[in-house]
Write a structure and sequence with these properties.
18% of the residues lie in helices and 52% in strands. By secondary structure, the protein is α+β, with helices and mostly antiparallel strands. Helix 2 (231-246) runs antiparallel to helix 3 (256-273) and helix 5 (327-340) packs across helix 6. The longest helix has 18 residues, at 256-273.
């Protein structure tokens, strides 16, 4: 591209701080005659010892961004960071590089949409030694985030996915059973292209296995959907937030929340008027005593066909949640509650059954075979459990 200017930028204080570590940096912005920019950042490896005696080291970091009009492309990575503490109680932290790839991102009115990915090989941390044992070991496995989105009628539509290989915490570090561990977590979200001024979105979270002190919970799944979202109201909310961002310096800190509520109230009112719907399409938690499962929905149904309003939302809201609980899991939950009430361990089995029977007789729990179910309903500011009112607003 024809070059209009080359700008080498210095960051106050950074050069002086890096000089002690033997590291340096460069930040160059090449401005094209047509308005394009090529920004390049580079930091060399370095090492230093802080006042506590920790040895801190890092490898090179690079970032290059190319902007042409509203489009941005680029790639880069951070350096690997290690922190080591030697001596009678050694400790160690290792953070692997984070890599960024922007295939094509469009920026319009402070909103961004496009294709990009962030990947990370994770980190490891070992705590200081105590009586010849390392006190703890904490690990985060590989992680990757990918997004593919686009602008559609003034909002961002598309999908984003996150994958995390695992995470674990052990105390001490050589413990056979982790204090907590998680394996293969995924998070997927989608926003649909608008159709007839409405859109919808969904999110799904799943973990293949959760290990809590040797107790395995697998799989764990939560899936939710939002539908009938009024796009013009969403656009108005985005514009209101952008205007507030532009004028934030004119608002004293103690009035920021009031200002935000004031600018968002009109678009939120329009959103509520069009009766959005929230659905819990799947809740699943596998436990050693069976799988807890649930489904639910929340919607807006004003009485007598009136127009929904933020002020009458508690009266207009209608919601249902159904939970199915395996018998062994219901007994475990009852036993935990009774233990906190001081019931002796040798009486828990018999007392737990009487506790569940009492809930059934009160209409707060239903039994189907060996399993139990619980149905929660909210309507007209009243909460019902299996059809029995238990709270009124």
């Amino acid at each position: 591209m024809p070059v209009g200017a080359v700008i080498d930028t210095r960051i106050d204080g950074l050069e002086k701080a890096l000089r002690k570590s033997g590291s340096s940096y460069s930040l160059r912005d090449v401005v094209g005659l047509g308005g394009s920019n090529a920004l390049k950042f580079h930091m060399t490896p370095g090492k230093l010892t802080n006042a506590k005696g920790d040895d801190i080291r890092w490898t090179a970091s690079d970032l290059q961004l190319d902007q042409n009009g509203q489009h941005l492309r680029g790639s880069g990575h951070t350096g690997e960071l290690t922190v080591a503490k030697e001596g009678p109680r050694p400790a160690h932290i290792r953070v692997t590089p984070i890599r960024l790839v922007i295939n094509d991102m469009q920026i319009v009115d402070n909103q961004s949409a496009g294709r990009y990915s962030i990947s990370w090989d994770g980190m490891q941390a070992n705590g200081p030694q105590k009586r010849r044992n390392t006190t703890f070991a904490f690990d985060i496995g590989k992680m990757k985030i990918e997004a593919d989105s686009h602008f559609a009628q003034g909002i961002v539509a598309g999908k984003a996915d996150m994958v995390l290989g695992g995470m674990s915490m052990r105390e001490p570090a050589n413990a056979k059973t982790p204090l907590f561990a998680m394996k293969d977590m995924t998070l997927n979200s989608t926003t649909n292209d608008p159709k007839n001024n409405y859109t919808g979105s969904s999110v799904r979270w799943n973990v293949a296995d959760i290990n809590a002190k040797g107790q395995h919970y697998s799989p764990a799944t939560l899936e939710m959907q939002m539908s009938h979202l009024y796009v013009p109201a969403m656009r108005d909310a985005i514009k209101a937030l952008q205007e507030m961002q532009r004028t934030r310096r004119d608002v004293p800190p103690q009035f920021v929340f009031q200002r935000m509520a004031g600018v968002l109230m009109p678009p939120l009112q329009r959103l509520v008027e069009h009766k959005p719907v929230l659905q819990l399409t799947q809740l699943h938690l596998g436990t050693p005593n069976g799988a807890l499962q649930g489904k639910g929905e929340a919607r807006i149904e004003p009485a007598n066909g009136a127009t929904p309003s933020l002020t009458t939302l508690p009266e207009d809201l209608v919601a249902q949640l159904t939970l199915n609980i395996p018998g062994p899991l219901a007994h475990q939950i009852a036993a935990l509650a009774l233990t906190r009430q001081g019931v002796p361990a040798d009486q828990l089995a018999e007392t737990s059954q009487r506790y569940l029977d009492r809930l059934q007789s009160q209409g707060l729990l239903s039994q189907q075979g060996n399993d139990y179910s619980l149905k929660l309903d909210y309507r007209n500011s009243t909460l019902l459990v299996n059809g029995r009112p238990v709270w009124r607003g």
